[in-house]
Amino acid sequence: MTILWAETALTPEGWRDGVRIEIAAGRILSVTCGTEAEGERHPILLPAPVNLHSHAFQRAMAGLTERRGPDPKDSFWTWRGLMYRFLDHLTPDDVEAIAALVQVEMLEAGYAAVAEFHYLHNAPNGAPYADPAEMSARIVTAAADTGIGLTLLPVFYQYGGCDRRPLGPGQMRFFNTPDSFSVLHAAAARAVATLPGDARIGIAPHSLRAVDPEGLAAVLPLVPDGPVHIHVAEQVAEVEEVLAHRGARPVRWLLDNAAVDERWCLIHATQMEPTETEAMARSGAVAGLCPITESNLGDGIFDGRRFLEAGGAFGVGSDSNVRIALAEELRTLEYSQRLRDRARAVLAEQKRSTGRVLFEGAAKGGAQAAGRAAGGIAPGLWADLVALDGGAVDLEGRRGDVILDSYIFAGDDRMVSDVWSAGRHVVRDGRHVSRDRIAARYRETLARLRARL
Ligand SMILES: [Zn+2]
Questions:
Q1: In the prediction, which pLDDT does 85 show?
Q2: What pLDDT sits at residue 88?
Q3: In what side-by-side order are the strands of the sheet with 264-268?
Q4: What secondary structure does DSSP assign to 397-449, as a single string?
Q5: What are the Formimidoylglutamate deiminase N-terminal domain coordinates in residue numbering (predicted)?
Q6: What's the 33 CA to ligand 1 centre distance in angstroms?
Q7: What residue numbers bound the domain in which 200 lies?
Q8: In angstroms, what is the span from residue 62 Cα to ligand 1's centroid?
Q9: Can 413 be counted among the known catalytic residues?
């Protein structure tokens, strides 16, 4: 058994001082407040959120797509073309090396777990590997190495658009039929079962562009308890395409045609009418927001205030992994609302500051989206914890919600000192315990990729 002790900690009942946390078999056994210091001591302990949306391999493109191309208006769609050309070169070894670095960076940023929306399944020529879950198994191997909590979401991807056009050359690595996908999913589940008990498998129908209504109905029974993740309403062109072919905007269509509930996570949801926003909040589904990537790709701004006022659950994800930064993800979410509304503290409540609403919401919603018993410092939950450096200039002497406001708005992930994922103490003094080895392998992989591209 491990005992952690915090001068102050954020519990489901609010901020408490002198908090003693007992951990056994990866779970929090007990939480006692107002105690004298003992065990391993930390100034500030928080529940560590889940990163609810990642495409690990895209990390290797970070910083390489910021030039204007021949298209007079560079857009999400030109970026996607570049991304497709890039992934044509990736081998299973490359994907494992990239995923391991990504997971190290996520843990160092303060995330305890990741929901990996994994769609790179086939060999470059589009044929399945001998083990159809070869690529999924590489994500699992990376997670076993880094100690991150993994919710693997194998992606089902059928078509190149709502008109059921076949996939283009750059998309053949994603392709499955419902039958081939169920074989792949079973093999991926066997790989996930080799990880510690906090790992989960879910499912991700890619989007309403890539999956038709029959395909969606065919694959959902593979994971009756969820989690189910889907990209939805990220881009205006996507909304128009779904409206033209399915007769409703994507979020509206999903709510009317699928049993969307708290097992679901709707990724992006940036393009919604107010009635869709309110209906989605009432459905219990988590809004999977990726404010840094959405800014980078020019997706649009989530209607956060309306969604939260309607009782909606949300979490954050690093999506394209152009930058993996938890505090910045939360800050960007709030700043996008401020810039649109020309207001301050848009997501704050009377009794909870902006930082508290953002952090607590992301911890709770992220855990829900990953199907992970976590998101709070409470008995029975996985010990997903993050410690902040109480000696940082902007944290010293601060108490209560101001800690989170200072960390998110004045600070950054350099304030993260330690992270535990289901009790695995993988970040110490701000560094992942295997950072050097995993970063060296990533550098070698990138050098090989540069030579191949
Ligand atoms: Zn995505």
A1: 78
A2: 84
A3: 228-232, 264-268, 286-289, 313-316
A4: T--THHHHHIIIII--GGGEEEEEETTEEEEETTEETTHHHHHHHHHHHHHHH
A5: 1-39
A6: 40
A7: 49-375
A8: 14
A9: no
